[in-house]
TrEMBL record, chain A:
Source organism: Albidovulum denitrificans
Gene3D superfamilies registered for this protein in UniProt: Folate-binding superfamily
A Pfam match: SoxD
Organism classification: Bacteria, Pseudomonadati, Pseudomonadota, Alphaproteobacteria, Rhodobacterales
Alphabetical list of InterPro entries matching this protein: SoxD (IPR006279), SoxD_sf (IPR038561)
Domain of life from the UniProt record: Bacteria
GO molecular function: sarcosine oxidase activity
Identification of the protein by name: Sarcosine oxidase subunit delta
GO process annotations (BP): tetrahydrofolate metabolic process
Automatic annotation (TrEMBL), chain B:
Native organism: Albidovulum denitrificans
UniProt name for this protein: Sarcosine oxidase subunit gamma
Source species, domain of life: Bacteria
InterPro entries associated with the record: SoxG (IPR007375), TrmE/GcvT-like (IPR027266)
Pfam family membership, one: SoxG
From TrEMBL, chain C:
Keyword Nucleotide-binding set for record: yes
PANTHER family: FAD-DEPENDENT OXIDOREDUCTASE DOMAIN-CONTAINING PROTEIN 1, SARCOSINE DEHYDROGENASE-RELATED
GO molecular function ontology, one term from the record: sarcosine oxidase activity
PROSITE patterns with a match to the protein in the record: RHODANESE_3
TM regions (residue ranges): none
Keywords: Cytoplasm, FAD, Flavoprotein, FMN, Nucleotide-binding, Oxidoreductase
Gene Ontology terms: biological process: tetrahydrofolate metabolic process
Gene Ontology CC, one term: cytoplasm
Protein name per Swiss-Prot or TrEMBL: Sarcosine oxidase subunit beta
Domain Rhodanese per the UniProt entry, residue ranges: 38-81
Keyword Cytoplasm: yes
TrEMBL record, chain D:
GO terms of biological process kind: tetrahydrofolate metabolic process
A GO term for molecular function: sarcosine oxidase activity
Segments crossing the lipid bilayer: none
Species of provenance: Albidovulum denitrificans
Protein name: Sarcosine oxidase subunit alpha
Record domain FAD/NAD(P)-binding: where: 170-422
Length: 107, 184, 416, 993
């Protein structure tokens, strides 16, 4: 039963107030992309045992999508941040690196 | 002839707290840039209040403005005033990218009254009632549906849900407030 | 190699010697330097793959490498529902193959897996669901899967404790598979392990695969916590850990690992003789031979490797079942647990060659792969031995790229 | 025999007697009793039968760890099987019955299993019952099921109610013994928000029974003062009868409050399930005593030493007149002292240790009791009740030295900390060699959302078995605020682990040493598992069922894994424990379901006209959480007739459909047109203000997901209609793209679905009805097809869309929801002269099928793309992109072999059954019959007076006129011809008048 703090309204929401949305920072591939690119975008999602970046919506709250960095092996939450970004904030990445020295970094 | 009726026509139940459907209320969703001067003016024009801070509701008599999300407010006015308020808001926001929608008929409003009113919500909402701040509006869920509530007076909470689930919400409130269910 | 046969007579004989002379069900060997084939993952699917490699293709120089204890993954924690009333042709083919192998599994393995074809009902609770199930019945008839649609009265007769009238979702009928049912999940793994061991295969437990070695695009072996082990062919059959293994081999699978939970009630005398799935309200229930009600529901929505789920899914399931079977309200939940299931984009499995020569994957069974264990093993063995199998043809990992999905959610919503 | 003593009993109130029955026999206890103490007080030691061998079972324990004493409690709507008597408070009028026997508790036919025990070792069923094949299901399984299963099946609906509650605290302390109380005092003084919860009805835990003194006062007194102090602290919440059931991730603690189990029917909710969110959790859950494994240790009358002490001290109940103590530690001598104090006989203490010279043994010796050190129990005498004990040397093989007559045996094999909650979220244990127990390893706790420890074990739950240590530990762990309580108790010499008694017991004795009492798992079973290669502790558990009973191995697990370790010649920590899972003890399914039953099982969404439908014969159909009239039944009318009547009425005159459930989403802003062009397959940006356009939406994976009519309200504002089930989903979908992908686009959306009541007025007389209402001009010229207008109708503020899903002249009118019912009534009144007929979803479905309109959910099922439905006209060729476009370019999506939409007409006019498939010749590689199409919608058309259908058929549109075979039930084949899917008014003349 996760709790995640919504970066927009500051509510420490519990999982039942949230809607999970899968991998964060997906790059959309539309017409003109290769089959491989499109397949990668749609289906071959990251599924690491460890640090993961994902989407959540504060569905029973402000309604906004936000992003979370979380460890899928311990459920530790490193931080949450607004969805309007194409990669995790640098300071968050540094924080994760400090906690998980073996983490290969965001790629 | 008043053709407009609220979802439950004011039904109420008395348990260890009194729960009642509070009738029709004018409500307007406003989306736009909350930081803009026009928005400030629009709210002032609509409710006479200041723009609410995040997660807050500012109440002035029978009008109020509530913060719903970083780009959304809910304006509360008497039901009869809703259309004029929409017009006023539209006027104030003209030229800005915004959206104003009358949602008065899409909602149901409830009051929960009594010294133990908070216990009713404690059973339904995953919210720490003890840390509910003065003037805070909390958007959350009540059992299985979306709801928002705030402390409207001493020992009284106002809760808003969608209109279609008014019967369900009343069922929840009535059951939660039933005598014997006091959380000692 | 050979093994002593199990029978009532053997037990009687054992009793005379205070059961001191039973032999091991499977050996506990040290790994050899190299095998013809290595299977990673001693779950049902891995073990069955090995078993049919030996039985159907005579390939017995095989190791099954397991990081924990055999059968300890999802095979050891599922709600044991067996059915083959799937809608799409490829699914119906492999699940029915599996179901029919279950019919004789105890005898084939000389291990009583307690396959219990007690009948399975999928409740139709909306008009839409009814139409979906009727469609399934017609498809099944053409696929050689025996199912039929039954009305509410027959449902009530089969499940007297059911609340037919709703109140919210009256039961309009059910998709009934008379020879669907359950089996003793652990026994399936144990029976296969015993049979594999008897064929001379090595079941190597407490050994984790930590790397995959390739040379010129071809697999050469695996790194493990017990050192390097060579192989010509490698089968990755690790369910929730499929992505982790694939990453070791340098490719990505369309898999997400999610927690699925189940629970049992305290045991009671026989209360329900069939398996009931109620997909509109999200819950399913059967009763084990020991008497617990075995209950399952939906998955969490976020990636997770902890074998723990979120409690609100248990609540949702329980609410649904209390509504459907009001008498269970005064029973108690004895234990709840979770497993990590491997979900694909179309909720159907992957049995496929991979970008690496000699590596095959069997995964993506998600919430519903216990029932398919023998069929999957049969097909996967054929794929690994021959390079192709009619049963695996449509389950390639490349189907997503082509847009050729095998979507079962169409009729049933869930796939347990 | 067990009896009620004339004096004492710290928890009972003798002035309040309470009557109850057991198997129909009237008995009496007192307020403060548990069912267990009341039964023992009434000399009822035999309380049930075991699972497998149907052995007689008596009460062994005094708390949550009890494996044996389960009864059926209550009657009718309050009957509950498997109630543990040790944790059930007695109430006046309680009706109880024993379980798992036939015909009676004393004479149980199933007990023949016990005689045949040699043939039923662990896992015997895996090795037999295989022939003949069908016999498992038809013969063996029914027998197994009938003899297993313990409690009876309830037959009535639960009469009680249940509820949830949400709690929040900085610190939740679980367990109200002296450790928990101490921690609460310290944390409370620090000002933390503290919850202290205790599963029983009393504070204090073991200490008052064990003769502990704290701060110079007897424990009882200290506890009372501590509780009073805590009650005065506003930041501290105390709850009795509240068990921490499970600790879940991120500090989510489930607490099970048994509000009214002891006062059934008093109008209060029976159970309240607290969903706590704790900043931190402290487990002060105490320790549980272990049995000893000697032959016959399951005979009724053999009990835990601490339980014997509890019964005497707490409830003034003596389990026996002559109690032999068997132990490997000093603590059990307390039981001897308690018994002697109560005037009962202790013929001997059998101590497995070579010597016993501590203060407690000396005190016992001083009272003249024989202490036999280095001895053990060879065997217990008696069947349904202990009659004596045969004594042997612990170091030997069990040769009898003497027999001591007794009617109870109090055993103690040492203590195991209660580590369940510590372990639920991954907290690890460490083996404590001195006390032969697993204790929490503070360096490897369960971690929370922040990655830090979320739970701390304190007191005896942390392995601090001595009172002084327990209290000191708790005080420190909770921040050492205020002065530390000082506890004093008798000194104890080290215990010495004993896993089998006697050490050298042979197979015959080992087959009579119970580990798991309820599931009948014996030492020999665990050894057999090891021998057969089920070496992992998890394999042993599953092979033998050790620890899988309703007590979850609270007594048996450690003993079992010690035996396993011994059999495998490895150290106990190498074997490890099985996984601890919630709940700590079983919790009611009713509590988990909470308030959600009956009317509030799930939200039922109602339109403003819902109540009218209800009283006018609506035959309901659930659509998502809405309920829509499928049709309206008139008296004596069947569903089919009603649907046909409704359709004829619309085709001939006029009908009304409550369409309020349709989704309505406003999309507004400078980029709204561009946004909608991405969302829909066709162009929405080019739609003129005042006009409507039908549109399709696909998932990014290319499949059709929703459809509906879009109206352009103003230069920068569109209103999108969705399907009933699609409103929230599509609104969420829009927000998703706007927030996460195109966040720089200026678009706002609002879901106004419920703001409006919407009514379709359809049929040749539709316009006349509206004209009768009066108001805005609804004439053909003023209001053309696929246009919308705003105005008033009959005084109602209305937005009117001229769209048609039935193929008739039709208006959809939206009015404010609050006026919906009044508007509906006004329409009925205005339409009266035309015989206006309300119609339901089925009439709507059939009429659209007559027109060849697709329906999301019928023609689509998540695998269908618009191209399959020949909807190319609604897919813009000009657009470079829309959601789903790239997906639709994949090889299988553009394959000419995809099944495509056609109409189907049976040759004999009959209706093809729902879901039927069209077959092709031959079979595929897997032996399945080839198929070439299927029906998607199929109805009897009252308009055309024959069956009509739509379907998807391979190369369908190129095969007009061909006849397909649809095999249906009983070997019948229906023949249907491929035709144009538009069956009615092909040129659309009717809707455009
Ligand atoms: C709660 C629940 C209920 C379910 N209910 C049903 C049901 O009713 N009916 C049904 O048909 N299906 C059901 N399923 C699904 C079913 O259990 C699975 O699909 C099936 O058991 C998968 O078997 P498997 O052999 O692929 O995987 P597993 O049994 O999980 O085996 C995979 C093995 O791989 C091992 N492994 C992983 N990584 C490594 C490594 N690096 N090195 C070595 N070994 C490794 C694991 O330890 C594990 O033992 C359910 C699943 C769950 C969790
Ligand atoms: N001498 C020995 O060998 C020995 C061994 C064990 C305990 N003890 C004695 O036990 C006492 C230790 O005190 P303590 O406070 O640590 O333990 P305790 O056993 O006195 O108290 C633990 C309390 O926790 C409650 N509890 C357990 N699980 C719970 C749950 N899940 N939810 C709610 N409540 C739960 C129990 O009902 C009990 O009241 C001392 O008196 C000590 O001497 C002695
Ligand atoms: C079909 C089935 C029946 C089960 N019955 C019981 C049971 O009677 N008692 C019990 O304690 N656990 C039972 N379990 C749960 C297991 O103890 C265990 O929780 C589950 O296999 C997951 O393993 P884990 O908890 O060790 O991770 C059952 C599990 C399954 C799959
Ligand atoms: Zn928020």
């Amino acid at each position: 039963m996760l709790t995640l703090e919504c970066p927009y309204c500051g509510v420490k929401a519990e999982e039942t107030e949230l809607q999970p949305g899968g991998e964060a920072h997906l790059k959309r591939y539309g017409p003109g992309s290769t089959d491989e690119e499109f397949d990668g975008y749609m289906f071959s999602r990251k599924n690491p045992k460890g640090v993961h970046f994902e989407r959540w919506r504060h569905a029973y709250g402000c309604g906004k999508w936000f992003l979370a960095a979380r460890c899928t092996a311990t459920l530790e939450v490193f931080g949450t941040y607004p969805a309007q970004t194409s990669e995790p904030p640098a300071e968050l990445q540094a924080k994760i690196k400090a906690k998980r020295p073996n983490w290969e970094g965001y790629k | 002839m008043s053709k407009a009726v609220s979802a439950l026509e004011g039904v109420s139940h008395k348990g260890f707290a009194e729960v009642a459907e509070a009738g029709l209320r004018g409500m307007i969703t406003v989306r736009g840039d909350l930081a803009s001067g026009a928005m400030k003016k629009a709210v002032k024009a609509a409710t006479g209040t200041a723009l609410p801070a995040p997660r807050r509701i500012v109440i002035d008599g029978d009008k109020a403005a509530a913060w719903m999300s970083p780009d959304e407010l809910l304006i509360l006015v008497p039901y009869e005033a809703a259309q004029d308020t929409v017009a006023a808001l539209e006027k104030a926001l003209a030229g800005e990218h915004h959206l104003v929608a009358d949602v008065s008929d899409a909602r149901a409003v409830f009051t929960i009254k009594g010294a133990r009113a908070d216990q009713v919500l404690t059973k339904l909402c995953p919210v720490d009632m003890a840390t509910l701040a003065e003037g805070e509006i909390r958007r959350t869920r009540a059992a299985q549906v979306a709801a928002a509530f705030w402390k409207s007076e001493a020992e009284t909470f106002t809760l808003v849900s969608f209109r279609s689930v008014a019967g369900y919400v009343m069922g929840l409130l009535e059951t939660a407030a039933r005598a014997g269910g006091e959380i000692a | 190699m050979g093994m002593k046969r199990y029978s009532a007579f053997a037990i009687a004989k054992g009793a005379m010697s205070w059961h001191q002379n039973w032999e091991r069900a499977w050996r506990s060997p040290a790994p050899k330097a190299k095998y013809d084939a290595i299977i990673v993952g001693a779950g049902g699917h891995g073990l069955a793959t090995a078993y049919y490699l030996g039985k159907n293709f005579g390939i017995t120089n095989v190791a099954i490498i397991e990081k924990g204890w055999l059968g300890g993954g999802n095979t050891g924690r599922n709600t044991t529902i067996i059915r083959s009333n799937y809608l799409q042709d490829p699914s119906a083919a492999i699940y029915e193959k599996a179901r029919s192998l279950y019919e004789t599994m105890s005898q084939d393995l000389n291990y009583n897996v307690m396959f219990s074809p007690r009948g399975l009902l999928m409740l139709g609770q909306t008009e839409h669901e009814v139409r979906g199930y009727k469609r399934t019945v017609y498809a099944n008839n053409l696929q050689g899967v025996e199912t039929r649609w039954i009305g509410p009265a027959e449902v009530k007769k089969l499940v007297p404790i059911i609340n037919i009238d709703g109140p919210r979702y009256p039961i309009l009928g059910a998709l009934y598979q008379e020879r669907g049912g359950t089996a003793r999940h652990d026994a399936v793994a144990w029976g296969y392990a015993r049979a594999c061991s008897a064929m001379g295969m090595d079941v190597i437990q407490q050994t984790e695969v930590t790397g995959v070695k390739t040379e010129g695009g071809k697999v050469t072996g695996v790194e493990t916590t017990k050192g390097f082990i060579g192989c010509d062919r490698l089968g990755m059959v690790v369910a929730g850990h499929a992505s982790v293994l694939a990453e070791m081999a340098g490719f990505r699978l369309p898999i997400e690992s999610l927690a699925l939970q189940a629970m049992v009630s305290e045991p009671i005398k026989p209360a329900i003789d069939v398996v009931v799935m109620a997909n509109t309200v999200h819950g399913y229930m059967s009763q084990s031979d020991k008497g617990e009600l075995v209950i399952g529901g939906g998955t969490d929505g976020f990636n997770n490797y902890t074998q723990r789920g979120s409690f609100h899914h248990i609540e949702e399931t329980v609410r649904a079942l209390v509504e459907t079977f009001p008498i269970i309200s005064r029973l108690k939940m004895l234990r709840q647990w979770g497993g990590i299931v491997d979900m694909t984009g179309d909720r159907s499995p992957i049995l496929s060659k991979t970008p690496v020569d000699g590596i095959f994957v069997n995964c993506g069974w998600g919430t519903g792969g216990f029932k398919s264990i023998p069929g999957s093993g049969w097909a996967m063995a054929e794929l690994m031995a021959r390079g192709s199998s009619p049963l695996t043809e449509e389950f390639s990992m490349y189907r997503f790229r082509e847009g050729k999905f095998i979507d079962e959610s169409v009729a049933a919503g869930v796939a347990h | 025999m067990s009896t009620r003593l004339s004096k004492g009993g710290r928890l009972i109130d003798r002035s309040k007697p309470m009557g109850f029955t057991f198997n129909g026999k009237r008995m009496q206890g007192y307020q403060g009793d548990t069912l267990a103490s009341a039964l023992l007080g009434a000399d009822q030691m035999l309380v049930g039968r075991s699972f497998k061998y149907h052995r007689p079972r008596g009460i062994v324990a005094s708390g949550a760890e009890e494996p044996n004493a389960l009864v059926g409690l209550g009657q009718g709507g309050r009957f509950e099987p498997n109630q543990r008597v040790t944790t059930t408070e007695l109430f006046d009028g309680a009706v109880t019955e024993s379980q798992n026997h036939w015909p009676s508790l004393d004479f149980d036919v199933g007990a023949v299993n016990d005689k045949l025990y040699k043939f039923f070792p662990a896992g015997f069923y895996y090795k037999t019952f295989m022939f003949p094949r069908a016999a498992w299901k038809h013969v063996f399984e029914p027998i197994v099921r009938q003899s297993a299963g313990l409690g009876k099946v309830p037959t009535a609906r639960d009469e009680d109610r249940y509820e949830y509650a949400y709690g929040f605290a900085d610190l939740v302390i679980v367990g109200g013994g002296i450790a928990g109380l101490t921690a609460a005092l310290s944390a409370g003084r620090k000002g933390q928000r503290v919850w202290l919860i205790e599963q029983t009805a009393h504070w204090g835990g073991r200490a008052p029974v064990d003769g502990v003194e704290i701060d110079g006062k007897p424990a009882d007194e200290w506890v009372r003062t501590a509780v009073e102090t805590l009650e005065k602290m506003e930041n501290v919440t105390l709850r009795l009868r509240t068990m921490a059931s499970g600790l879940y991730d991120h500090g989510y603690l489930l607490a099970y409050e048994r509000v009214a189990d002891h006062t059934p029917g008093d109008g209060r909710p029976r159970h309240r399930l607290w969903r706590m969110r704790a900043g931190h959790v402290m487990t002060a859950t105490g320790a549980i005593e272990r049995p000893l494994s000697f032959a016959g240790n399951d005979v009724p009358g053999v009990m835990l030493a601490s339980a014997v002490r509890d019964y005497v001290a707490n409830w003034a109940v003596s389990p026996g007149d002559r109690t032999v103590i068997v132990t490997n530690n000093d603590d059990a001598y307390r039981t001897a002292l308690t018994l002697l104090e109560a005037g009962l006989a202790v013929p001997a203490v059998i101590d497995a240790r070579p010597e016993a010279k501590g203060a407690l043994p000396e005190a016992v010796r001083a009272r003249g009791v024989r202490v036999l050190t280095g001895h053990g129990v060879a065997k217990v005498k008696g069947a349904k009740r202990v009659t004596g004990v045969s004594v042997c040397m612990q170091a030997g093989e069990g040769a009898e030295i003497e027999t001591i007559a007794c009617d109870a045996i109090a055993m103690s094999g040492g203590w195991s900390p209660v580590v369940h909650l510590w372990s639920h979220c991954g907290g690890k244990l460490t083996w404590d060699e001195d006390h032969a127990m697993f204790r929490p390893d503070p360096t490897r706790p369960a971690t929370g959302a922040d990655g830090a420890a979320m739970v701390t074990a304190i007191g005896s739950a942390n392995g601090m078995l001595r009172a002084a240590d327990a209290v000191a530990d708790a005080h420190m762990a909770a921040g050492s605020e205020g002065t530390a309580p000082k506890a004093v108790s008798a000194e104890e010499a080290p215990m010495s682990p004993v896993w089998i008694m006697p050490e050298g017991a042979g197979p015959a004795l080992r087959m009579k040493m119970w580990l798991d009492y309820q599931n009948d798992v014996k030492v020999s079973d665990v050894q057999l598992a090891a021998r057969e290669g089920y070496e992992s502790v998890e394999h042993t558990k599953r092979y033998t069922t050790l620890g899988m009973a309703t007590d979850q191995g609270k007594l048996s697990n450690i003993n079992g894994l010690a035996v396993l370790s011994d059999a495998l010649h490895q150290a106990i920590p190498a074997t490890g424990t099985t996984t601890f899972r919630p709940p700590y003890t079983p919790i009611s399914i009713g509590a988990i379901a909470g308030e959600a039953r009956g009317e509030i099982f799930q939200p039922l969404r109602k339109t403003p006209m819902h109540d009218w439908h209800e009283v006018h014969g609506a035959h309901w159909e659930p659509v998502g959480q809405w309920r829509r009239p499928y049709c309206y039944l008139r008296t004596g009318e069947g569903v089919h007739d009603a649907v046909n009547r409704e359709i004829r009425a619309i085709r001939n005159s006029v009908g009304l459909l409550d369409a309020s459930t349709l989704g309505k989403i406003i999309v507004k802003g400078p980029d709204a047109g561009r946004f909608l062009d991405m969302l829909y397959t066709n162009m929405m940006s080019t739609l003129a203000v005042g006009k409507c356009r039908y549109g399709l939406m696909c998932t990014e994976n290319g499949f059709l997901s929703d459809d509906g009519v879009v109206a352009r309200l103003s230069e920068d504002t569109w209103l999108c209609h969705t399907t009933t089930g699609g409103a929230e989903r599509i609104h969420g979908w829009m927000e998703d793209w706007l927030q996460c992908e195109w966040w720089d686009w200026k678009v706002y959306t609002a879901n106004v679905t419920e703001e409006y009541a919407q009514v379709a007025v359809a049929g040749p007389n539709a316009r006349k009805v509206l004209e009768k209402l009066g108001g805005m001009d609804v004439s053909k010229d003023a209001h053309g097809f696929m246009e919308w207008r705003e105005g008033t109708l009959g005084g109602f503020r209305a937005r009117v869309y001229r769209i048609s899903f039935s193929g008739e002249l039709s208006y959809e009118i939206a009015v404010p929801a609050s006026e919906g019912r009044a508007f509906w009534d006004a329409l009925l009144a205005a339409g009266e002269e035309f015989g206006v007929t309300p119609y339901g979803t089925e009439a709507m479905h059939i009429m659209r099928a007559e027109k060849g309109f697709i329906m999301i959910g019928d023609e689509t099922d998540g695998t269908v793309i618009p191209q399959d439905l020949n909807l190319q006209w609604a897919i813009s060729k000009k657009k470079t992109d829309y959601l789903g476009k790239r997906a639709q370019e994949r090889s299988y999506m553009v394959s000419p072999d995809r099944w495509k939409l056609v109409g189907l007409e049976t040759l004999d006019g009959s209706v093809i059954p729902d879901g039927a498939y069209a077959v092709a010749d031959g079979v595929n590689a897997n032996g399945q019959r080839n198929m070439q199409g299927r029906v998607t919608s199929t109805y009897y058309s009252p308009t055309l007076n024959k069956g009509i259908a739509m379907g998807l058929v391979k190369h369908g549109p190129d095969r007009m006129g061909e006849v397909l075979d649809f095999p249906v039930d009983d070997g019948k084949v229906i023949k249907a011809r491929i035709v144009d899917p538009v069956f009615y008014d092909k040129d659309g003349e009717k809707q455009n008048v």
